[in-house]
Design goal:
With 468 residues, the chain is α/β, with parallel strands linked by helices. It has three domains: 214 residues, 3-Layer(bba) Sandwich (FAD/NAD(P)-binding domain); 111 residues, FAD/NAD(P)-binding domain (3-Layer(bba) Sandwich); 105 residues, FAD/NAD-linked reductase, C-terminal dimerisation domain (Enolase-like, domain 1, 2-Layer Sandwich). The protein is built from 15 helices and 24 strands. The strands form six sheets. Strands 1, 2, 3, 4, 5, 6 and 19 form a seven-stranded mixed β-sheet that branches. Strands 8-15-9-10-11 form a five-stranded parallel β-sheet. It has a five-stranded antiparallel β-sheet with strand order 20-21-24-23-22, with helices on both faces. A hairpin with a 3-residue loop joins β4 and β5. α3 crosses α5. The protein is globular. The structure holds flavin-adenine dinucleotide (FAD). The site of flavin-adenine dinucleotide has 35 residues, from α1, β2, α2, α3 and β4.
Length: 468
């Protein structure tokens, strides 16, 4: 059977591209070897946010025990928390399936392999079918990085198993403090596990603004999490159903530290799924493990495109969504705007949440900007005081010369809901004066951005302006 467009992989890149393609009148098929929705829906964004929601609820309950006279002897049923997360996944999956069907997208289950002559061979239940297409989009995503020899899926695990453990481990070591490591650290810490984080860099969340990294380390340490930074893993081994991690701190390589744990979770990033999909035979260029594309997501081979985690852009679902839409609109010949990769919001949904867009203070200095920085503490925001969550701050970085909003870095309760305002303001090249004159509701968390701008302009009412 021939299609205008076939997409390999139904994650947020693939399924969004397929809907947009069908909307534009192209005969479209999507090939999926596992479950609709990809990693994002099944093992990434969605189940993690569901379990984090349960953890935050537990935190809220514990915090308010005295207020409501709640009996302190309640139990935590981790299996039920995971069942709830699977139900959430299934609800969204049904909706995606419905949308694909309603838009006329053909869903083909099976493992796809690219073939010469713009063909895809699909293996399903030992049967092979061949499909052809005028345009083929590769959206096969990524899988977690882990030492294959150590991984057993039981005591040495990745995020997938961490989303379905049948017990609350007494101790959990997490290697890597990226967003995923931090989110699981928060979840299992709330559930009662003793968490130990081991990070190679000198900072937790090394890619965030340094103020955020320093704040979050100190915050999580106060909640009982043990954090080792600048750490180099020497060896990992198992003994008597326990996992042992031996490592040393960079400036003291002679002093080995060995820690014992029930579970070791690897959170050291992902690698693109480019193996066994036929890239080599077709001659599609790969660099550093990623498929090489141009700004329209075209590979070097005519008619083949790639989007999402298989290309070297930031690995996030909303990025994959937009790449899918842009790729399709370019195929259709619509003149769509390129994605501005400098204006992508990044959120971490542990507590306190972290949200950022643009460059960090260090990056801005490196680029030679003269900076004006404003940092507004949420402890001075009336809404945060009402909500009884006053930890964190909003940090704004502006270029002093042209008043360009270079970056925004937030940490605090629900800040993931605030960052889009900054994305839009930056997109529209809004000046600080214009934001100052945009009335925000009182009392609201969104006022924190306005308050930070007031402070930036030296006109703060609710905080003390710096004397210039
Ligand atoms: C624990 C975790 C939490 C995350 N949280 C967030 C978050 O909160 N926000 C956010 O924006 N991002 C988050 N991410 C990242 C996000 O999930 C990814 O960036 C996103 O899933 C990438 O989408 P994709 O379409 O490129 O690929 P994927 O979602 O990986 O989908 C690829 C699909 O292709 C299929 N496939 C692969 N090979 C073949 C083949 N040969 N034939 C047929 N099908 C194939 C796979 O089965 C899969 O379904 C998280 C990731 C993880 C692991």
């Amino acid at each position: 059977m021939h299609f205008d467009v076939i997409i390999l992989g139904s994650g947020p890149g693939g399924y969004v591209a397929s809907i947009r393609s069908a909307q534009l009148g192209m005969k479209t098929a999507i090939v999926e070897k596992n479950e609709l929705g990809g990693i994002s829906l099944n093992w990434g964004c969605i189940p993690t946010k569901s379990i984090l929601n349960s953890a935050k609820l537990l935190q809220d309950i514990k915090k308010n025990i005295k207020l409501f006279g709640i009996n302190n002897n309640f139990d935590i049923y981790i299996d039920k928390i995971f069942i709830k997360s699977r139900n959430t996944v299934n609800t969204i999956k049904k909706r995606i399936y419905y949308l694909l069907k309603k838009n006329g997208v053909n869903v083909i289950y099976g493992e796809g392999k690219l073939k010469k002559g713009k063909k895809i061979e699909v293996l399903y239940k030992n049967k092979i079918k061949i499909f052809s297409a005028s345009n083929i989009i590769i959206a096969t995503g990524a899988t977690p990085k882990i030492d294959k020899e150590l991984y057993d899926g039981k005591s040495i695990i990745t995020y997938k198993e961490a989303l379905s453990l049948s017990f609350i481990p007494k101790t959990m070591i997490i290697i890597g403090t990226d967003s995923i490591g931090l989110e699981f650290s928060y979840f299992y810490n709330c559930m009662g596990s003793k968490i130990i984080l081991i990070e190679a860099s000198s900072l937790v969340l090394p890619n965030e603004d340094e103020d955020i990294s320093i704040y979050i380390k100190s915050y999580i340490e106060k909640t009982g999490v043990l954090v080792y930074t600048s750490s180099v893993i020497d060896k990992v081994f198992k003994k008597n159903k326990k996992v042992f991690v031996q490592f040393y701190i960079k400036n003291n390589p002679d002093k080995k530290i060995t820690l014992e744990s029930d579970i070791l979770l690897y959170s050291i990033g992902v690698s693109p799924n480019i193996k066994n999909i036929g890239l080599k035979k077709i001659g599609i260029n790969v660099n550093n493990g990623y498929i090489v594309v141009d700004k329209n997501y075209k590979t070097n081979i005519n008619g083949f495109y790639a989007i999402g985690d298989v290309i070297n852009t930031i690995s996030l679902s909303h990025v994959a969504f937009h790449e899918g839409i842009n790729c399709i609109e370019n195929i259709k010949g619509l003149n769509c705007q390129n994605i501005d990769y400098n204006n992508i919001p990044k959120c971490i949904y542990s507590f306190p949440e972290i949200a950022s867009v643009g460059i960090t203070e260090k990056e801005a200095i490196k680029k030679g900007f003269k900076l004006k920085i404003s940092k507004f503490p949420l402890s001075f925001l009336d809404r945060s005081i009402c909500d009884d969550y006053t930890d964190g701050f909003i940090k704004l970085i502006f270029d002093e010369k042209y008043d360009e909003w270079l970056g925004c870095h937030m940490i605090g309760n629900k800040v993931s809901d605030l960052i889009s305002e900054v994305v839009i303001a930056r997109k529209l090249e809004t000046t600080s004066e214009e934001i100052l004159n945009s009335v925000h509701p009182y009392p609201s968390l969104s006022e924190s951005i306005l308050e930070a701008i007031f402070l930036y302009c030296g006109k703060s009412i609710h905080y003390i302006n710096k004397k210039s």
